[in-house]
Design goal:
The protein has about 300 residues and is an alpha/beta fold. The protein has two domains: about 130 residues, Rossmann fold (3-Layer(aba) Sandwich), CATH 3.40.50; about 140 residues, Dihydrodipicolinate Reductase, domain 2 (2-Layer Sandwich), CATH 3.30.360.10. About 30% of the residues lie in helices and about 30% in strands. It has eight helices and 14 strands. The strands form two sheets. It has an eight-stranded mixed beta sheet, with helices on one face. It has a six-stranded parallel beta sheet with strand order 3-2-1-4-5-6, sandwiched between helices. Strand 12 and strand 13 form a beta hairpin. Helix 1 packs across helix 7 and helix 3 packs antiparallel against helix 8. The longest helix is centred in the last third of the chain and has 15 residues.
């Protein structure tokens, strides 16, 4: 297995670790913009795609969101499957340009929303498909504390806290919008409120509130960067039951009774995700979350 990666930050390390678990002998190359001081064990730095001796099996785009298009423009000539870290882009226009570039070459592509591989969400996805009941309301919530995300650096210098770098809680935590889209499809109407006035003092959106209108119910999605007692849940309120998904404690309850639980952690989803992507490549089939799907979600988000 030969892999080229663009962007070697913390999320890239998770993807590389997943690749190594699938194939310990994988060759991983990082396309860098210039000479770097730091090295990542087992990763060979290159400055030009021409330095590759053979075509990579796939390419991972994991640089900051606002640099995705430039990176993709550099590598699409290789004409090999592309794995893009979410979100697809920082704007609809840029995302559409990326879609046109990749789709014109008919490249297998995947936009990484690893929560689709969270066992609790997969359980609920199947539960919704295999049971008939009336949904009245859906409430998705994710609140966490941005300074704790990367405690070794000044959070205000990171892309998450800077709007011009593609930061903002609505983009960082687009997972919640993605799994609502995965569960229920495109909403008929979207109302949103985005704010950046919290105690964090950053210029990127730190609070997002969405109301997604479907034919027979409404879904609410609330996201924030400033909650120190982290919470990540989803309630599906039905006419005769309530499903409560707790993504941090890995369980699903039905009317307060345990319905499903898992010992896996969110970190395990990266391996499941990479295994899935690799299987799509081997079977030469398109993925469950293409750039077309990701663009749908981005239109809800922005």
């Amino acid at each position: 297995m030969n892999v080229l990666i663009v962007g070697l930050g913390s999320i890239a390390h998770k993807h590389i670790d997943a690749v190594r678990k699938i194939n310990p002998n994988a060759s991983v190359f990082a396309l860098r913009s210039g000479k770097v001081e730091t090295e990542y064990v087992g990763v060979s730095n290159i400055l030009d795609i021409k330095e590759l001796n053979e075509k990579p099996d796939f390419i991972i785009i994991s640089n900051p969101t606002y640099k995705h298009k430039d990176a993709i423009d550099l590598v699409t000539s290789v004409n090999t499957p592309i794995f893009i870290e979410k979100p697809l882009a920082e704007s609809i226009i840029v995302a559409q340009e990326i879609r046109e570039s990749i789709n014109s070459k008919n490249i297998i592509n995947y936009v990484a929303c690893n929560l689709r591989f969270h066992q609790c969400l997969q359980f609920v996805f199947d539960y919704l498909k295999n049971n008939q009941f009336i949904i009245n309301e859906v409430n998705s919530y994710c609140g966490s504390y941005l300074p704790n995300w990367r405690p070794h650096i000044d959070f205000k210098q990171n892309y998450s806290a800077n709007e011009d770098m593609g930061g903002g809680v609505h983009l960082d935590l687009i997972h919640e919008l993605d799994y609502i889209y995965w569960f229920f499809g495109l909403p008929l109407k979207v109302d949103k409120f985005l704010r950046k006035k919290s105690s964090l003092g950053i210029n990127a959106v730190d609070y997002a509130n969405y109301v997604l209108e479907y034919e027979n119910f409404t879904a609410s999605v609330i996201l924030n960067y400033y909650r120190q007692d982290t919470k990540r849940t989803c309630e599906i309120v039905c006419s005769d039951r309530t499903l409560i998904i707790d993504l941090l404690h890995n369980n699903v309850k039905l009317n307060d009774e345990l319905l499903f639980s898992s010992n896996e952690r969110i970190s395990d989803t990266y391996l499941h995700q990479m295994n899935y992507f690799w299987s799509c490549i081997k079977e030469n089939k398109q993925t469950l979350n293409t750039i077309d799907n990701a663009l749908d979600v981005l239109k809800i988000c922005l």
